[in-house]
Automatic annotation (TrEMBL):
One of its GO terms (molecular function) is NAD+ poly-ADP-ribosyltransferase activity. This is UBC core domain-containing protein. Residues 112-152, 902-931, 946-1018 are annotated as: Disordered. Residues 955-964 have a biased composition (Basic and acidic residues). It comes from the Eukaryota.
């Protein structure tokens, strides 16, 4: 449909242009199905310009299509080229004639200064410059939000492309600009990110595209989050930045209006640290749909597409690309200016910007957005996993002042929002409430956010979900269908509800579903007018005579119908007194004959479960399914022409009461085609969408999108095989969906149940579960079997809400005789008893789901549950994790022998190394009363018992692999001096060998102290620090403590290994710390030297005056590290106490005063590299006072005084003292040393 409309619009636009209707355009030539050439002329051009216009997604034209614009004409005026590129970003969703007129408008404006083209430098309007205006949040002329100057942009519509800045750059020539670019990108690399040059930016040009990236495995994300987000740990998270005007330093950007900075961003993933130039250009040319970007034509960019796929240089959109791209392109510069002016956090800046610009978001109606923020730049960042990549805030680095890097600030911003995406609304980007921690991001409860989220395509690609996991989509639809079935006066059969009584007594009517699709602006037929009003308009519902495919109206109804009767409009009609409702699309309107012609698409009923889709077989011609009903017409056509009531799809869904909302959703879902038929359609039409299926109404498509998008859990189908019967009567096995093969994760002995992998919670929920598990195991001395498995059963009506809001105990449905908490049982039959159906299955379902249960992993501490008999009652939400979802079907299409990927019942699972060993007395029981085996492959490796099988170990990817060294060319250019051409000392790269962590402390220490190549480049003149000059005989050297254990030793050895590699790769003057790894005999005690402080710091001046080249730190680790923080203190030199004017977060006793190092601020995901960096940053902090050295020789700090000062500081700030502080500070000794 889209391609045909596009071709027709090209021909129509060509006729209009030929008639001279668009100034400057003379003709359209070379038109094909997807592209054409536009000829443009202007007095300022030496010759006419031929502009290629290529449709990027013709099947979705116009709403889902964008055009790529470019010219191949040589020597084209640069202003014209820029105008063409500028227009590219503002034509998404436009029709051909609109694109042509917009392009002509922008070209004319760019080439004609009198109409807003580029002005000379002396034409600047200084009053617009932010430098010359005071910051005032209430000032109407505030330029923070000048990109949202009208209501159209507040609703996500594009405005006219901003023109080039009229402000001149600082007086620099091109070489100086390139030097600044290189300087800023070096800062990015120094912060731990990779830099990729894609064109001439920084080499011989001050505009272009640069790629910034980081390996995903460095972001400390859980396996469940990566799987839910469809990201691999070995992928690179990539930020593309395209500078469309002359590159500007951060100080210049913050000193001028936001619209005068023209930089565009794209966030995605790549197998390499940078994508190819063609794919980068394709990313900026296409709409923000999740998936692979389409490169421009290869004849333009000379790219071998197959080679790009093979070498991993493709750029792929990710789950959050559309939302984050828009956020950065619309708001990042304004947020940056607000932060620079007010020293507030990113969240506070966004809150201020929304209040100033609106963005269509209401002020007081948002129940899940929290508008209050402290104006502390580190308020939110301290809550991040304190990894060096995540915790650092380059914008607040006052030591660098005007040397701060704009690309680094942008990269930190992007990484922060990717990692913490589930905590923010995907539309307004305000922080969400804490009532449910999701593994998938979503929007807040503001209706307009939901509408824009759906309208702008920020949610998951529904077509991708259907073609990869059709059973998951069907599961979600079935659960929604069950959740909208009301219970009235305790009745469990929804079809027995008296709607009139329910409407008059809404307090007695409940919907199990907790959230309805309010805010989508759904247009539905109002099928319940007579139930809601005694003063019904006699003309509504409209009556007509039904004859085959025609409706004949009387004259009176036509006065009210008028413009509502249009082609492609959906209607519903029924014979008065009958329950069957027919849904159809108008194909022709003939008002002269008072007739409309229609094509019937589906049927629904006033009784639940009677709807019927009227299309042919779900899997295409020639195949049927055992026990599957034919999707033929549910009711024959009447023999006579009856009078029918006609309902138009023109009622706003939001205006209905909840009971009617549920009924309306049911009628719409009844019309939705079977999911497997959608899968078949999409496989046959790979570039189409479900909206292009003629059988899917706009309302049904929007509801399906909402059902899938609002699912905030991670669900994957295990069963992919389906049995069909060919026309010859043969049985054939076909694969459903293109998703990952998970047959190894299937649990045997569950005949008649379809299995799904199931995970919930925020990206760090798995980590919190592990922490609880380890804490309990350590406290109870559990050596093996730290977890047990148990069932949770609930009515099918409740599961739509459970998969969105988690297993909680906010509502009581079956009583709480055994206490408050989530109820589990090891007995299958017990939980099955709580899984009463009470709901009719979705009539177009393949599976006909009637029961749903989850299998959960729980911390093995039954004696600490609220109750352990006859049920487990767990009130600590971090003590249990969902692992599986099981659904029982009526269709009987699933058989264990067909789908099981693991050995059948003959192979006992009790002692099978491929299965989780369950603790005695707490085994999980299956339907037949036998013990079920849970595959090890389905459990995160870190949760399995003490000695996991080699099979399980080998199946996990080694996380110790180092980054690739394919960026040598880019690094070499970064190390070069653009002015002199000389190169800086090279950075030597090390490739760590893949190895598993050893089981003994000796092996761990041996691995950590193995000697990698060291950094050997000369640093003369760059630092006065000399490695190896420290006198170790004057330092406390402790023996390995008695509390040393294999778990902590392994972790410490791994940290040392990473630090050693980092130190070997990084120049000393850039690293700022040094460790003599050959001197470490005790893994629980480290000595670290901080050195090479910024020369302008008072601390650096004092050190130089005192002849001191380093600050010596001692780090002592607790027995349960990394679950408790290390104790870090300064050994020497002595710092000036705070009361005497000192600072730098060093207490009077030498201990570091940082929330990070307390029980309040510590997180086990902290790496020691990030801890060292943050300690150094704190020591360099000038607020509230700078660090200074104490004059005079008072000797080294003692451990005892450090502990006392630490405790005083913690109590003053109200932080939590680590429980094992005393033992940690003693280092396993009997007294302080």
């Amino acid at each position: 449909m889209g391609s045909k409309r596009l071709k027709a619009d090209i021909l129509a636009a060509a006729q209009k242009i030929a008639s001279g209707s668009v100034a400057g355009t003379s003709s359209i030539s070379g038109a094909s199905d997807e592209e054409f050439t536009l000829t443009y002329h202007h007095p300022q051009l030496a010759k006419d310009v031929r502009i290629q216009v290529v449709a990027q997604n013709s099947d979705e034209y116009p709403e889902g299509n964008n055009f790529m614009l470019f010219t191949e004409d040589a020597d084209t005026n640069q202003l014209a080229v820029d105008a063409i590129q500028n227009t590219q970003d503002y034509i998404f969703g436009l029709r051909v004639y609109e694109v042509v007129t917009e392009l002509a408008k922008q070209l004319d404006k760019a080439l004609n200064p009198a109409k807003g083209g580029k002005k000379p430098a002396n034409g600047d309007d200084e009053e617009e410059d932010f430098v010359n205006s005071d910051f005032d949040g209430d000032e109407e002329g505030d330029d923070f939000g000048d990109d949202w100057s009208d209501d159209a942009e507040a609703f996500g519509l594009h405005s006219e492309a901003p023109q080039r800045s009229a402000h001149t750059s600082f007086p620099e020539n091109l070489k100086q600009k390139c030097q600044r670019i290189i300087h800023d990108l070096r800062q990015v690399r120094k912060a731990g990110y990779k830099v990729g040059f894609l064109d001439s930016l920084g080499k011989n040009a001050d505009r272009g595209i640069v790629s910034l990236s980081i390996r995903v495995k460095k972001l400390a994300l859980s396996d469940e989050a990566l799987e839910a987000w469809n990201i691999d740990e070995d992928d690179y998270l990539v930020l593309l930045a395209r500078f469309e005007d002359e590159y500007a330093a951060l100080g210049q950007i913050t000193a001028r209006p936001a619209s005068h900075t023209r930089v565009a961003f794209r966030v995605g993933k790549c197998k390499k640290y940078k994508p190819s130039l063609a794919h980068a250009l394709g990313a900026f040319a296409e709409s923000s749909r999740v998936g692979k970007t389409k490169p421009p034509p290869t004849d333009v960019y000379d790219l071998d597409e197959k080679e790009a796929r093979e070498d991993g240089s493709e750029f792929h959109r990710i789950f959050i690309s559309a939302s984050l791209d828009q956020f950065m392109n619309e708001s990042f510069i304004s947020l940056l200016k607000i932060r620079e002016a007010t020293a507030c956090s990113w969240d506070a800046a966004n809150n201020h910007l929304i209040e100033r610009t609106g963005l269509g978001v209401g002020d007081g109606g948002n129940l899940r957005c929290i508008p209050e923020y402290r104006d502390d730049p580190m308020d939110i960042d301290e809550q991040l996993e304190s990894h060096r990549m995540l915790a650092c805030d380059h914008l607040t680095d006052n030591d660098l002042a005007d040397k701060r890097s704009f690309p680094l600030v942008a990269m930190q911003f992007a990484v922060r929002y990717v990692v913490k995406c589930t905590e923010y609304c995907l539309r307004c980007h305000r922080r969400l409430g804490k009532e449910f921690e999701a593994i998938r991001p979503y929007v807040c409860s503001e209706p307009l956010c939901l509408f824009q989220y759906m309208a702008m395509g920020f949610g998951p690609n529904i077509e991708h979900e259907i073609t990869t996991q059709p059973y998951v989509v069907e599961l979600l639809v079935s659960l929604c269908y069950a959740g909208i079935q009301s219970s009235y006066y305790g009745q469990q059969r929804p079809q027995l509800i008296d709607l009139a009584a329910a409407a008059s007594n809404p307090e007695h009517t409940t919907l199990p579903i907790r959230a309805l699709p309010v805010g989508l602006r759904l247009q539905i037929p109002d099928l319940f007018p007579s139930d809601k009003s005694n003063t019904q308009d006699p003309t509504h519902p409209f009556r007509a005579h039904w004859s085959n495919t025609r409706l004949l109206f009387d004259l009176e109804p036509l006065r009210y119908l008028g413009s509502h009767l249009k082609e492609d409009k959906w209607i519903a009609f029924r014979i008065p007194g009958q329950s069957l409702v027919r849904h159809a699309v108008i194909t022709k309107v003939d008002l002269s004959k008072r007739s409309i012609f229609f094509e019937e698409k589906a049927q629904s009923g006033y009784n639940w479960g009677t709807g019927m889709y009227t299309s042919p077989a779900a899997l295409g011609a020639g195949f049927t399914t055992p026990n599957m009903q034919t999707t033929a017409m549910a009711s024959p056509l009447p023999s006579e022409d009856p009078v029918v009531e006609v309902f138009i799809y023109d009622t706003d869904f939001d205006t209905l009461d909840n009971v009617y909302k549920g009924e309306a959703l049911r009628h719409i879902l009844d019309t939705l085609p079977p999911i497997l038929e959608m899968e078949d359609f999409l496989n046959k039409h790979p570039h189409s969408t479900i909206r292009s299926m003629g059988q899917v109404s706009p309302a049904a498509a929007s509801i399906l999108q909402w059902i899938v998008s609002s699912n905030r859990s991670c669900i994957y189908q295990i069963d992919h095989t389906r049995e069909v019967i060919t026309p010859n009567g043969d049985r054939k096995h076909i694969k459903l969906g293109k998703g990952k093969d998970r047959s190894r994760e299937r649990i045997p002995d569950m005949q008649g149940w379809v299995q799904f992998r199931f995970a919930q919670g925020s990206p760090d929920k798995e980590f919190r579960f592990k922490r609880a598990l380890q804490e309990v195991a350590a406290r109870k001395n559990i050596k093996s079997n730290p977890t047990i498995f148990a069932w949770h059963g609930s009515s099918l009506c409740n599961w739509h809400s459970i998969v969105r809001t988690g297993l909680d105990f906010n509502e009581t449905r079956n009583g709480r005789v055994y206490g408050h908490g989530v109820y589990f049982s090891p007995e299958f039959s017990t939980s099955l008893g709580y899984s009463s159906t009470g709901a009719q299955p979705w009539p177009n379902s393949e599976l006909k789901i009637n029961v749903c249960m989850s299998l959960n992993e729980i911390v093995n501490a039954p004696d600490e549950f609220v109750s352990q008999s006859p049920h487990y009652v767990v009130d600590q939400l971090d003590w249990h994790q969902c692992r599986y979802l099981f659904v029982r079907t009526e269709a009987g299409v699933v058989t264990n022998r067909l789908l099981a990927g693991l050995p059948g019942p003959k192979n006992s699972t009790s002692n099978n190394p491929a299965y989780h060993k369950q603790p005695s007395g707490h085994a999980i029981m299956g339907p037949n009363g036998s013990t079920l085996g849970v595959p090890l492959s389905a459990i995160p490796f870190r949760h399995v018992g003490a000695e996991p099988s080699k099979q399980a170990q080998s199946s996990k990817r080694d996380l110790e692999r180092s980054d690739d060294s394919s960026d040598d060319e880019d690094s070499k250019f970064l190390d070069s001096d653009p002015e002199s051409g000389a190169e800086s000392p090279p950075t030597k790269r090390v490739t760590a060998e893949a190895s598993s962590i050893g089981g003994s402390r000796d092996k761990a220490k041996a691995e950590s102290t193995s000697t990698p190549p060291s950094y050997v480049a000369s640093e003369k003149g760059l630092t006065d620090f000399v490695p190896g000059a420290l006198n170790w005989s004057t330092l406390p050297c402790l023996k390995e403590p008695e509390f040393a254990n294999p778990a902590a030793s392994k972790h410490l050895a791994s940290e040392l290994k990473k630090l050693r590699q980092t130190q070997s790769e990084t120049p000393l003057h850039e690293l700022g710390w040094y460790m003599d790894f050959d001197r470490i005999d005790n893994l629980f005690q480290w000595i670290v030297e901080l050195h090479t402080f910024e020369a302008s710091l008072p601390l650096a001046k004092d050190m130089k005056k005192a002849g001191v080249t380093s600050v010596v730190l001692e780090i002592r680790f607790p027995k349960d590290f990394p679950f408790s923080p290390p104790f870090i203190r300064v050994v020497r030199p002595r710092f000036l106490p705070f009361l005497n004017g000192g600072g730098g977060h060093v207490t009077a006793g030498g201990a570091m005063c940082m929330e990070l190092l307390t029980g309040t601020g510590w997180s086990p995901v902290n790496s020691m590299e990030s801890v060292l960096l943050q300690v150094r940053v704190a020591m360099c902090n000038l607020e509230p006072k700078p660090a200074r050295l104490q004059s005079g020789g008072a000797g080294d700090y003692g451990v005892g005084e450090a502990v006392e000062a630490y405790l005083r500081a913690v109590r003053v700030h109200g932080w939590k003292v680590p429980e094992d502080l005393q033992a940690t500070a003693l280092g396993g000794q009997t007294g302080f040393q």
